Every structure is written in structure tokens, then in C-alpha cells.
């Protein structure tokens, strides 16, 4: 049993030398010395008043996602921790971010000084001037608002401040035409990949809860070329908004957000909850911030607006992706040699749970102890933590791909009975493409159902991590197309050992009975053969587990002793 002692303060009664002499008279006292007081602080907590960031920009104090002091009924300290990165001297200098959108008001006085005209282009009108097309309702303000979040200039008394306020911003106008084409998307994604470092995309297939869509052939090739050849071979960094379909949709049905080549970003609001429009899925890597649920007019994202104006009302995961692009720009300034995969690893390792929470999806730990959430990914990006780790970062080992196994024969699915399938794998051990440490995992599935929206697909790794690959989409009535070799992706098993048994569970959720057929499940593993930092994480996690179990046992013992003492006392009385 652990002894518990309460300190006795008698300094006001006796001088310290007399007190020491008196204590030494006790038989069991071997030594006496006076204790000096010193300070200790809780780690992970910052006093907002200690953050010294002085900006003259009028909206800066309303940019709670940069420094959250509790503005607009928010939670103090719940922000991107950019102040630490700025104080370390990182502001995005030397980094170019392209906003792929409906254009940029590059004449805006808060953007003009950071605008990279040479890296900009208008693929909607085929000219080098991506200025937004005028409409009476300012419908084409989206790109300008996103650009301000990233690169709005600092200390110029105009609007607010960009996350990376010394970075360069390029405009790629490609959204403003009646229909999108594969060639426009591919041209935009591959525009000047040796000049542009980061591409920010706040768009995708329709967020109507019934669409299943993704990049076509030319765009897929452009993205593959970007990560393999962009930035001198280090790889273009694609940041994608996870989607605004809310609980009616699943971002694993969006082939852009769920791509291994993109960093998919979800959002939280200023009190740590999910926004009502946030989609959940296992491919989301991390989160930033968007507007709050409350009707506080200052709970939105403050940024630049069309024609030299400012706004407090930018919102959606559209607002979240550019914030992430800004944080990544800070990391690239700290270490220009970061590859596209380095940026993903840094996002996983430095993102924080902070005070993010959701009523449905709880925080869990994967097999190596990394904490994740089905909505928030690995947590909110931490700019300070990321630049500090980036500065000392060594490029991750070579990436390998392994087809771990496949189930090809048809299996029926019926309401009330889950279809459970298993694949045992050695992860290509003994071959050149052996995968020992996971990054991305894909379950390539072909399945048809009488109602696609009622399908629910879960996958569990050999280390026990359960990923929700597909949740119910109540608006999806499809009964013909289903999913054809669709690559459901999870990042939740990051760092795990893939060897062992993978389990796929397929069933129906909903009031009406449904039926279906799973025709194929192929398991694709992507990762490395060595990753020393993961070994350290595992050791730390196991040590913490052992310590927590020890503390639990000690607490149980204390409680048992206390109960026994109370029982004896009551009997004696």
C-alpha cells in the first residue's frame, strides 16, 4: 500500500533551525532539510495572455482559429497554434500555394503583395488572369476567401492575417463553367508543379448524400505525376476538403478526399464540436476549423472577400482546407526537403486531440497507440508542433505496395445477418515489396445492393483497429450501380504491422429489409519496411499502458484497504 503524507506547515510558529532540531529528536528521523518552493506548469496548456502577437489588421482579433481567446463563445486555446510557429520565425516565406477554385481577386489590397502571377492561370477562360467572374450575388467569392486564409498580408491595417502571411498565393480558376471536364481538372492539378508547392482544393463531387464519384483517368494520372515528379521529385502536396454532406454522406464516397495522394481535411467549430455539415470517414487525416453552430456573427472564418472587402462569414470544410495548406507552408519553410509523404506523417504525429469532441464518434487508439477519431482524423493541426518536428525531420523510407489477398467468389448479404470475411496475410514478407509499417490501406470492393445507401462496411486490422469504411447514407437510393472496384481507404491503421488476419464486415442498416451481393474484396497495403519513429511510439505506448495498469491496480488496492479500514472502524464502534 502506498503511504500518503500531508505536509505540516509550522514556519509561522518556529524558526527553521529550531524546527529542524526539534524534528531530529524523533527516533526514526535520519536527516532534515528545508524545502525550497519552485514552479511547475501543466503541459499542453497555454495562457492566452502570454502569447505576444501584435498585428494591426482589424480582423485579426476575430480570427479565433489562429489564436482562440474565447471569442464568439469559443473555447480558449482551441486553435491552430500558429503563434508558436510565427514566434519561431516561420511565416511561409518561399512557399507558393495554389488555390484551385473560382478565381482570386488578385487586386485585393490584402492579397496583391503576395500574389504569384507567374504561377496563376484561368482554365475556365484559357488566359493568365484568374479574376472571378462578376455576379450580383458575389457567388464567385469562394477562391478569394480561401486565398486570404492562406496568404493575407500582415500588419497592413486591412482585413485579417493569413496562416502563412509571407507565402505566395497563386490563383487557378477552374470551377466556373457549366460542367467540369477531366482535362480541366488534370490541367489544373498539374499546373506548374515545379513552382507550386501546395495545391488547395475546396471542392469535389456533389455533397448530396447519394453521389459516388472521383477523379477520371487524366486527373488520376496528373495526381500520380504530381506526387512522383512535382517539386523536383519531392512531390506536390494536395490538400482536400473532406466534404460538406453532413451525416447524410460519407467522404469515402468522394474519390478525391479518399485518395492516398491527397491530405483530406475535416473541420471543427470554435468550441471543439463537429460542424453539422462535416462528413465522417476513415480516410480523413486531420482537421482544422470552420464556422460555429451558434448564430454568433463572429463565429465564422474571417478573411478577404471580393472587390477589396473583408468577411466574417466564410464557412464549411471549404474554409478548413486552406488553413491546412497554410500550416503546411509553415512546415515547408522550416524544411523545404519535406516530401508529400513526410507531410502526411507529420500530420499524423503532430495533430492533437486538444478539446475536439463529437457526440457519436469517440476517440480511440490504434495498434501502435496513435489516437484517432472517425470525424477528426488524428486531430487538429498544430502549426508550432509541426514546424518544430519538421525542422529535424528525416525523410521517411521508401514506400511499397502489397496486394495482401483477395476474395473473388460472390457472397450474399441480407438484412439482419452480417457478412463476415477474412484475409490472412504475411504482407508480402520475403518479397521485395514487403510492407511492415502501414501508411494507407485500401479495401477495393465490388458490391451491389437493393439499396446502396443502407450498406455499412467495417474493416478490422490484425492489431484490432476497426475502421468504418462506409456508413449509412439515407439519401442514396441506388439499386443498380453499387460500388465497382471502389477503393475504400483508411488511415486509422497508420504505423501498424499488417501481418495477420484482416476482417471485413458488410451489412445493412435501415428500417426496410435489403439484400445484396459482394462480388470482390481485394486488400491493398501501402507502407514502408522500416520506420524507426514508429518503434519509439510503440515503446512509449506500451510503457504508458503498463504504467496506467500499475496505477489502476494501486488505486484498487488503496480503495480495498480503505474499505477494510472503514469496515473495522464501524465494527469497533
Automatic annotation (TrEMBL):
Coiled coil: none annotated. Residues 395-531 form the P/Homo B domain. Gene3D superfamilies: Galactose-binding domain-like (2.60.120.260), Peptidase S8/S53 domain (3.40.50.200). The keyword Protease applies. One of its GO terms (molecular function) is serine-type endopeptidase activity. GO terms for cellular component: extracellular space; membrane; neuron projection. One of its GO terms (biological process) is peptide hormone processing. It is an enzyme of class 3 (hydrolase). The active site is at residues 101, 142, 318. Residues 1-34 form the signal peptide. It is found in: Secreted. InterPro entries: Galactose-bd-like_sf (IPR008979), Kexin/furin (IPR034182), P_dom (IPR002884), Peptidase_S8/S53_dom (IPR000209), Peptidase_S8/S53_dom_sf (IPR036852), Peptidase_S8_Asp-AS (IPR023827), Peptidase_S8_His-AS (IPR022398), Peptidase_S8_Ser-AS (IPR023828). The keyword Protease applies. It catalyses: Release of protein hormones and neuropeptides from their precursors, generally by hydrolysis of -Lys-Arg-|- bonds. Its EC number is 3.4.21.94. PROSITE patterns: P_HOMO_B, SUBTILASE, SUBTILASE_ASP, SUBTILASE_HIS, SUBTILASE_SER. Keywords: Cleavage on pair of basic residues, Disulfide bond, Glycoprotein, Hydrolase, Protease, Secreted, Serine protease, Signal, Zymogen. Belongs to the peptidase S8 family. Furin subfamily. Serine endopeptidase which is involved in the processing of hormone and other protein precursors at sites comprised of pairs of basic amino acid residues. Responsible for the release of glucagon from proglucagon in pancreatic A cells. This is Neuroendocrine convertase 2. It comes from Salarias fasciatus (Jewelled blenny). The lineage of its organism: Eukaryota, Metazoa, Chordata, Craniata, Vertebrata.
Amino acid at each position: 500500500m502506498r503511504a500518503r503524507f500531508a505536509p505540516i506547515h509550522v514556519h509561522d510558529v518556529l524558526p527553521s533551525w529550531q524546527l529542524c532540531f526539534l524534528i531530529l529528536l524523533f527516533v526514526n528521523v535520519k536527516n532534515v532539510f528545508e524545502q525550497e518552493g519552485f514552479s511547475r506548469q501543466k503541459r499542453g496548456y497555454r495562457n492566452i495572455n502570454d502569447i505576444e502577437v501584435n498585428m494591426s489588421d482589424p480582423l485579426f482579433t476575430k480570427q479565433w482559429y489562429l489564436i482562440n481567446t474565447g471569442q464568439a463563445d469559443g473555447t480558449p486555446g482551441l486553435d491552430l497554434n500558429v503563434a508558436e510557429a510565427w514566434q519561431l520565425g516561420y511565416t511561409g516565406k518561399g512557399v507558393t500555394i495554389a488555390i484551385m477554385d473560382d478565381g482570386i481577386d488578385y487586386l485585393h489590397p490584402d492579397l496583391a503583395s503576395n500574389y504569384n502571377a507567374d504561377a496563376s492561370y484561368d482554365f475556365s477562360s484559357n488566359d493568365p488572369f484568374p479574376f472571378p467572374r462578376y455576379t450580383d450575388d458575389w457567388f464567385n467569392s469562394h477562391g478569394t476567401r480561401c486565398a486570404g486564409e492562406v496568404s493575407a498580408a500582415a500588419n497592413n491595417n486591412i482585413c485579417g492575417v493569413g496562416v502563412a502571411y509571407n507565402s505566395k498565393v497563386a490563383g487557378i480558376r477552374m470551377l466556373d463553367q457549366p460542367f467540369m471536364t477531366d482535362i480541366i481538372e488534370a490541367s489544373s492539378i498539374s499546373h506548374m508543379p515545379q513552382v507550386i508547392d501546395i495545391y488547395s482544393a475546396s471542392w469535389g463531387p456533389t455533397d448530396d448524400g447519394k453521389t459516388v464519384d472521383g477523379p477520371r483517368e487524366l486527373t488520376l494520372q496528373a495526381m500520380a505525376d504530381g506526387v512522383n515528379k512535382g517539386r523536383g521529385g519531392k512531390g506536390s502536396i494536395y490538400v482536400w476538403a473532406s466534404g460538406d454532406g453532413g451525416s447524410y454522406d460519407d467522404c469515402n464516397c468522394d474519390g478525391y478526399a479518399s485518395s492516398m495522394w491527397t491530405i483530406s481535411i475535416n473541420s471543427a467549430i470554435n468550441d471543439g464540436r463537429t460542424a453539422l455539415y462535416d462528413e465522417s470517414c476513415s480516410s480523413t487525416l486531420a482537421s482544422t476549423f470552420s464556422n460555429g453552430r451558434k448564430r454568433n456573427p463572429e463565429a465564422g472564418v474571417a478573411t478577404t472577400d471580393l472587390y477589396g472587402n473583408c468577411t466574417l462569414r466564410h464557412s464549411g470544410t471549404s474554409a478548413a482546407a486552406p488553413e491546412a495548406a497554410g500550416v503546411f507552408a509553415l512546415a515547408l519553410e522550416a524544411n523545404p526537403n519535406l516530401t508529400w509523404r513526410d507531410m502526411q506523417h507529420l500530420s499524423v504525429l503532430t495533430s492533437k486531440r486538444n478539446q475536439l469532441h463529437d457526440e457519436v464518434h469517440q476517440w480511440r487508439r490504434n495498434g501502435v497507440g496513435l489516437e484517432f477519431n472517425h470525424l477528426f482524423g488524428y486531430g487538429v493541426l498544430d502549426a508550432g508542433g509541426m514546424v518544430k518536428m519538421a525542422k529535424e525531420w528525416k525523410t521517411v523510407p521508401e514506400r511499397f505496395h502489397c496486394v495482401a489477398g483477395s476474395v473473388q467468389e460472390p457472397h450474399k448479404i441480407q438484412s439482419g445477418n452480417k457478412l463476415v470475411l477474412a484475409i490472412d496475410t504475411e504482407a508480402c514478407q520475403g518479397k521485395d515489396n514487403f510492407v511492415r509499417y502501414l501508411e494507407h490501406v485500401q479495401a477495393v470492393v465490388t458490391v451491389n445492393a437493393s439499396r446502396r445507401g443502407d450498406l455499412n462496411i467495417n474493416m478490422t486490422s490484425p492489431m484490432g483497429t476497426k475502421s468504418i469504411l462506409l456508413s449509412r447514407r439515407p439519401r442514396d437510393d441506388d439499386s443498380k450501380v453499387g460500388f465497382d472496384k471502389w477503393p475504400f481507404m483508411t488511415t486509422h491503421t497508420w504505423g501498424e504491422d499488417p501481418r495477420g488476419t484482416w476482417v471485413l464486415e458488410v451489412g445493412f442498416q435501415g428500417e426496410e429489409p435489403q439484400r445484396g451481393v459482394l462480388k470482390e474484396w481485394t486488400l491493398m497495403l501501402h507502407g514502408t519496411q522500416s520506420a524507426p519513429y514508429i518503434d519509439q511510439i510503440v515503446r512509449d505506448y506500451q510503457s504508458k499502458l503498463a504504467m496506467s495498469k500499475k496505477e489502476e491496480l494501486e488505486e484498487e488496492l488503496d480503495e480495498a484497504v480503505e474499505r477494510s479500514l472503514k469496515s473495522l472502524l464501524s465494527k469497533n464502534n
